Structures are given as C-alpha cells and as structure tokens.
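thought: fold this chain, then report.
action: predict
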Amino acid sequence: MRKPLRRATRMMPMLTRAMRITSMTIMLTIMRMITTMIMTTIITTIMGMAITSTTTVIPMLMTTTSAADGSALLGADAAALYRLMTWLSPAFPVGAFSYSSGIEWAVEAGDVSNASTLRGWLSAMLSDGSGFCDGVFLTHAHRAVEAGDDGALRDVAELAAAFVPSRERLLETSTQGRAFIETARAAWSSPELEQALSRGEGTLVYPAAVGLVAAAHGIPLRPTLHAFLHAVVSNWISAGSRLIPLGQTDSQRVLAALEPAVAATAERAQCAALDDLGSATFRADLASLRHETQYTRLFRS
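observation:
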C-alpha cells in the first residue's frame, strides 16, 4: 500500500502542472475565439459603413462633377455667353482700337492727364453722354428685332445715326457697325440673322448693330447691354492708357472704379424710352469736333 501511495504522491505535482497547462490552453483558445469574433464584427461594421458612405457619396460626387465641368451650363446660356465674349472682345475685328471718341483731343487740351481725370471724363461720357445714348439705341434695336417690327428698327437706326455729334464720331460708329455685322454674318450666320438684316435698310451704327445681331441669335437684352457697355468703356480706357500714358495697373483701376457706373447705366438704358434720350457732355462733344482739325493725331476720332 505504501508504494502506490508514494507513487500517487509523486505524481500529484505533475498532474497539477498538466491541469494548469490544459486550463491555460483552453483559456487562450477561448480568448482567441472571442477576439476573432470581435474583430469580425468590427470589420463587418466598418465595411458596411464604408459601403453606405460610398453609395451616398458617389451620387454627390457625380452631381458636383456635373456642375463643376460646366455640363449644367450647356445650352442656350453657355452659347450666349460665348458669343457675347467673342463679339465684344478687343480681338473682334471692328477696328475699335483706331478710335478714341475725342479722348485724344481731351488729352492734348489737358482735360485728361492722369488716371483720376480719365475716370471722371469717362464716367460723364458713360452716364450722361454717348454711353447712355448708345445703350438706349441698343435696347430699342434689340426689342424691335424680337418683335419683328421693321418700322421700329428703321426708326431706331435713323435716330441713332442722327444723334452722333460729329463727322468723325459718325465715321467711328458706322464703320464699327458695318464691320460687326459683316463679321457676324461670315462667322456666325443664321437664318434668323439674315431675316433680321433683310428687314433693315441702310447702315446700322454700332449699338444698333449689336442689338440686332444679339436679338437674332436669341441672346437676352440684359447681358448684351452690360457686355456692350463694358466693351465701350474698355476701349476708351485703352485709348487713354496709350495717350496719357497709363500703366496696366492704373488702367485696370479705372475700369474697376467704373463698374458701378456701367451697371447703373445699363439699368437706366434698359428702362428708358426714346424720348428719354439726351446728352449733357458738351466738352466731350466739342472734343470730337475739334479732333477733326487736330494737328497731330494717333486715332481716327
């Protein structure tokens, strides 16, 4: 009996150690299983959130991309913007760079000598002189073409030509009007434009020509008027910058300062009747008259 008891007593530590190892193995296995289950749950949740987010974001990205690449602007609005930017760009061949609208004489006489005096001179021409009047002529020519009113279009064209204060200014606006129509017909022809031109008679001055072509192409009046006045003011500043002379930065400062006047003149011209026409820029009108006999000239007006 003693020998078996001794053997059992000797084996107890071994059995205890074996049980401990087995318990630890079981616990590690259980912990690995729990960890695996937790990680699987976490990964599944994250994947689900990612799929949901992707599903939500993709349409948003498609919408944003669609708006960003300009596809929402395709159509009539984009075509109108493209044509206005082209027709009223300094690169459009109407010869606007050859004319100063009397500014050359104003510089020689000392009325315009720097950026400040140029801004004041142009603000008056725009708001109370030829800028406002040309805006009114453009407005009524545009509306006459839209309405198919041949008589109204002829009346506007005749009045616009008669309203010019000097021979050189008439040469300026009639030559630009003719060049504008010829180039538009050659590069931007359309049945509507040909029909509108067939109803007119004689030479159209520049603002009436722009109004006619824009209306024939279905371009709204408001952006046409703003683009036209911006182009006119830009050409005046270009002439002034060469005559004074001015640097590029000062020229842009003058253009920026005249932005409110351009917007206000466009709004007034759009609401004005032909009976509201009138000019109070007598010094500018005299400048265009005296330029005809000016001894040294860079410009045709």
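thought: worth noting. The radius of gyration is 39 Å.
final: tokens above.
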